Structure formats: C-alpha cells, structure tokens
UniProtKB/TrEMBL annotation:
Family classification: Belongs to the N-acylglucosamine 2-epimerase family.
UniProt EC number: 5.1.3.11
Lineage: Bacteria, Pseudomonadati, Pseudomonadota, Gammaproteobacteria, Pseudomonadales
Name of the featured protein: Cellobiose 2-epimerase
GO biological processes: carbohydrate metabolic process
Top-rank lineage group of the source organism: Bacteria
Organism listed in the record: Pseudomonas fluorescens
Alphabetically ordered keywords of this record: Isomerase
Amino acid sequence: MPHQPRSTSQLELNALFASVQQHFRDVIVPLWQGPGWNADMALPYEALDAAHHPLPPQRYRAMACARQLYVFSGLIGQLAGAEERAAALFRSLQQHFHDAEHGGWFYSIDSQGTPLDRSKDLYTHAFILFACAHYWDKVREPLVESVLNATLEVIAQRFTTNDGLYEACLDQEWSSLNTGPLQNPLMHLAEAFLATLAVRADAPVQRALEQLCSAMHRRFIDPEHDVLMEKPLGAVDNWFEPGHQFEWYFLLESSPLLRGSPLHASLDRAFAFTEQRGVDESSGAVRAMLTLDGQSKDATQRIWAQAEYLRALTLRPDSEAAVMRQLQALLQHSLHAHGWYECRDEKGEVSRRDMPSTTPYHLATCYRGLADYLAD
C-alpha cells in the first residue's frame, strides 16, 4: 500500500527533500563524473574550486576513493554510468593503495601514483570495509567479498588492542606509532561493521562490534554529561564534537543490535546537552569543537556536521518540525546552485569555497536516513 502523507507539513517536507535529492543527482554527482574525475589515474581529485576546477593535485587518499565508491555504489541501477564508475573506483583501491608486500592499504599516493604516506591508519581501513560492504551488496562479485574479508582480517590481526579497542595508526610494517585509540576512526569502524552485518550474517563481526561499543562506553564517555570525547578519558586537552555525537547517535539508534546498549543510553541522554551547547538556536548551525564546560575550541560550521545533525533528528521522537527546520537550514546555508559551501565561520560567513571529494559521502548517508524517515 503506498505511503500516505501524515500532514500538510509532511507534504512540504517531501517536496523539500525531493529538491535536495535532485540537487545531489543533478549538481553534486556530475561534479565527480566530470571535472572532479582524473581519468588517467581513475581517481577523484581531492577537491574542486568554486569554478569546478580541480585543485592542483598533491595527493590522492585511499579513504577518499572509498567514500566515492560508497556514493556510486548507492547509485547503481539509478544513474547511468554509476556501476562502471564504482567498478573503476574499486579497481583503483587495489591498484594504487594496496600494499602488496606488507598487506593493508597505504594512506595516500602522490600526484604520480607513488605511495606518499605509507602508514596504515584505521580510518582508511574502516572506509574500505564500509565501501566494499555496500558495493558487494549491489554486485555480489566474489572479488569484492574477498577484499571485504581481507580488510576484516587486517583490522582484526593488526589494529586490535587487548581491551576491545583499536590503534588509530600504525607504520607501513605494522609496528606501533603509539597513537592509541581515537574516537573518529573507531566510529567509522563501527559504521563499517554495521554495514557488513547489513549484507551478511557474521558472528565475529557482531562480536567485535559489541566489544567495541562496550569499550567506547568505558573509555570515552564523560561520566557527568554522557558525551563521547574525542580522546580517551584522562587524555590531555580533550574535547567533544557535536557532529560526532549526532553521528554516533544515528548509528546506535538505527541498529536493533546496539539500541539499548550502555553506549546508546549515554548518547541518548546527552542529545539535549549536545544540542544546547553545540547547535546555534537561530540558524541551526552545528559548532565544530567544544570543551566540556561549553567553551568553543573551534566554532567553524561544517556541512558534514549539519548533515549528521539532520540525520540524527530523523530518529528523535516527534521530530517533524525539527527535521523540516534543519533540512531548510542545509538547503539555505550549505547548498547552492553550483555545489555546496564546505565551511562557514562562527559569524556564518563562507570560509571555504572548495568542494572536497569526501563530502558527498556525508550527504548521501544523510539523504538515505531522510528517505527512510519519510518512508515510515
């Protein structure tokens, strides 16, 4: 039975969402099919300027390649050329970034394709796992699943610590760089584990995900405010980021496996505090970095944080008005006819006009959450 709109306001919300989806399809995606694509390297450029010219390439990152693989995987069957582009990105991950000698994937290559930063970071490997899970779900090719399995094996064998957490970065040969665990790579690893479990039953991955979330609650949650810190508790110069609070909240709330866990309960309790301290009431802008006493470490308003707040609101109770407000804010303040504004400063003035190849991932995940919300 077709979905019946609940109210006039939802009709307005549907129309607004249709406009941002069309903007994504007609404006943003073509940037990376055309001027943002280096056909010789079969890789996206790191960023385009406001006139759609590639910024002079100094590096290409495996993480950026993987994020674009996710975006184009999601468009297979909906957009002409998406399957071919996803296949090219998948091949490039292996061709340019895989370390045939030591295993795993390099962080970056230079403009000529030579390994540049040879370190092995968890953030990169999490995104490769995430992208391969989504791509394999669409194509079911054995080679894609073999790369997914190889990534899982590397993460389990190389990055794990003895407390359910994972090192943020290791050197090329897998020896320690003493980085310890950091929040952001661990969040994207949880996201990648969830993506894997969405496409196949996998008991070891489920166990690793549950252990990871338990360890995050134990090591990263501030006991007074229930916010998730960026570094483990007790670390010098620690802070929290509202955008990451909202991102974690969505992952936990949307997962039947994780909903109701201690980590989810903390992020649920902290939601109002995060909004109060981290969201500008008049504009809906999300502040970048805060100390626990509410002092701003960085008041930059980044489009990815706006998208994560909007996505999180779709899972809050009685959220229709808030979702509408934030979707309007995204459209008015972050999107424009020729692309998007990556950052505004604390006064709301545009502070970055370049458009990184990594940002469409955040918009794609946000719009996927909105689509699910409107389909309920």
